[in-house]
């Protein structure tokens, strides 16, 4: 029998050897071969699975693959953080499953059949979301921003517990201050989503938006408007930062953060102060060390002032006070700024006052709460949360939320008002399914809207209303992103 030529003889044209004889030791230098030859060697190996693993783990091949991806990113000027996007790794996984010789889709295929197919998939996803809107309602959020051409744009998004989808974008540069035109834009969006589906609309709290929101409530009696909670809390923190005793400390942050695992869009000064406070001991050790004393930095005027502050006990005492006063508010901001869960029921609870705080801080909190955030929908969300309603000590602090709930019931109930108020009396005490031990155990561990799904069947009218309210969000900030791509649309 004629001996099979070595695989190296086929490198020039990439063909496969004519029969199956091969030397297993060849895997030590397999990177010299074409993909077709490597595939043949893998298939013909007696231990195919371990060999495949060894091939994929080869550092040289991995480096070649990584470099090929990097060259493409650099050549087309794609930001490197695009690797963090949702569809990047699935694309790599799909390529891995293809056989050698796979050709990527052409430009014509990408902007033709594949684009149409993806648009169809998006429409199907949107239809799934719309079915949820019909069942439990949704929140329309208006995210206003200004592009590099100084145009004022509003992006409308629709939130439900399953997720948020983009609806439309409008250039309102000519109408950003016109209440009538803003109202018209909001009304058109509500009609598009469906008046019966929209429970809540969230916008910024500029005066023209406030008035347009109130007009919208008159036009659609079952709809509630409120300002973005995260934006309002950010304004509170800004006002607190202007207080003399706070500004003296906050100015040392220069509006920047000490290096953190992730950037935070709001409350930067206070979060930076938290970071500085956490490094108090390390900073003091550093500025009193021999290395610092002998460094060139120590002789600079700024460095001397820095050392003076670090060694000043009064500075650290004030830092502690400022952080303690503002930390609860920053926690609320993080909560409402998250898309992880609906936060409607949390607003009243989280703004529970601590009367030992400084009066100036309370005035800022109370003014913003009373004038902007104290809404009937927020009060109803609190009242309908079993974890709060059945906690006697907790609920007694917020008895006034009952008024907000009754106002919401009157809007929704119409002829069934008496029936729903009677159901409210049943729910007021842990009766029926809400009195089950399982319900009492779960009221602090599952989402309140899910609690009503599981245990609210005994009060069906209230159940439907509670699920609609507790499934909403109270902020538009969770929908914010880099909207620069929309500059090419308008």
UniProtKB/TrEMBL annotation:
Domain of life: Eukaryota
SUPFAM superfamilies cross-referenced by the UniProt entry: Ribonuclease H-like
Signal peptide: none
Pfam families assigned to the protein according to its UniProt record, in alphabetical order: DUF659
Record-annotated DUF659 domain positions: 105-248
PANTHER family, per the entry: HAT TRANSPOSON SUPERFAMILY (PTHR32166:SF88), OSJNBA0013A04.12 PROTEIN (PTHR32166)
Name the UniProt record assigns to this protein: DUF659 domain-containing protein
The species this protein was found in: Glycine max
């Amino acid at each position: 029998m004629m001996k099979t030529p070595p695989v190296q003889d086929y490198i020039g044209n990439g063909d496969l050897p004519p029969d199956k004889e091969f030397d297993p030791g060849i895997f030590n230098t397999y990177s010299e071969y074409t993909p077709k030859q490597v595939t043949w060697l893998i298939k013909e190996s007696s231990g195919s699975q371990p060999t495949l693993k060894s091939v994929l783990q080869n550092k040289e091949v991995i480096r070649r693959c990584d470099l090929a991806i990097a060259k493409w990113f650099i050549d087309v000027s794609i930001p490197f953080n695009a690797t963090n996007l949702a569809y990047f790794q699935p694309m790599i996984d799909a390529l891995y499953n293809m056989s050698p010789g796979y050709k990527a889709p052409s430009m014509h295929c990408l902007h033709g059949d594949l684009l149409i197919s993806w648009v169809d998939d998006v429409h199907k996803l949107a239809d799934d979301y719309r079915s949820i809107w019909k069942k439990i309602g949704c929140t329309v959020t208006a995210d206003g921003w200004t592009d590099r051409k100084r145009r004022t744009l509003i992006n409308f998004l629709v939130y439900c517990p399953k997720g948020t989808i983009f609806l439309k974008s409008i250039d309102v540069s000519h109408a950003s201050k016109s209440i009538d035109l803003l109202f018209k834009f909001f009304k058109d969006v509500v009609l598009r989503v469906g008046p019966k589906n929209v429970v809540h609309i969230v916008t910024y709290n500029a005066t023209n938006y406030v008035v347009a929101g109130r007009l919208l409530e008159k036009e659609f009696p079952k709809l509630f408007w409120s300002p973005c909670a995260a934006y309002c809390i950010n304004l509170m923190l800004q006002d607190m930062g202007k207080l003399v005793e706070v500004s003296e400390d906050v100015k040392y942050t220069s509006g920047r953060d000490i290096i953190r695992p992730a950037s935070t869009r709001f409350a930067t000064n206070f979060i930076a102060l938290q970071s500085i406070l956490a490094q108090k001991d390390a900073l003091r050790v550093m500025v009193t060390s021999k290395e610092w004393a002998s460094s060139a930095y120590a002789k600079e005027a700024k460095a001397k002032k820095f050392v003076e502050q670090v060694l000043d006990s009064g500075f650290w005492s004030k830092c502690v006070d400022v952080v303690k006063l503002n930390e609860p508010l920053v926690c609320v901001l993080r909560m409402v700024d998250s898309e992880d869960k609906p936060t409607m029921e949390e607003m009243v609870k989280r703004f529970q006052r601590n009367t030992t705080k400084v009066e100036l801080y309370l005035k800022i909190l109370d003014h913003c709460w009373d004038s902007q955030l104290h809404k009937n929908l927020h009060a109803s969300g609190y009242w309908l949360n079993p974890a709060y309603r059945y906690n006697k000590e907790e609920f007694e602090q917020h008895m006034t939320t009952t008024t907000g709930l009754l106002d919401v019931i009157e809007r929704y109930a119409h002829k069934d008002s008496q029936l729903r108020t009677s159901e409210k009396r049943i729910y007021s005490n842990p009766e029926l399914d809400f009195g089950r031990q399982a319900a009492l155990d779960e009221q602090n561990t599952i989402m309140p809207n899910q609690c009503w799904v599981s245990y609210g069947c005994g009060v069906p009218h209230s159940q439907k209303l509670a699920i609609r309210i507790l499934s909403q969000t109270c902020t538009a900030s969770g929908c914010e992103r880099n909207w620069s791509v929309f500059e090419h649309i308008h």
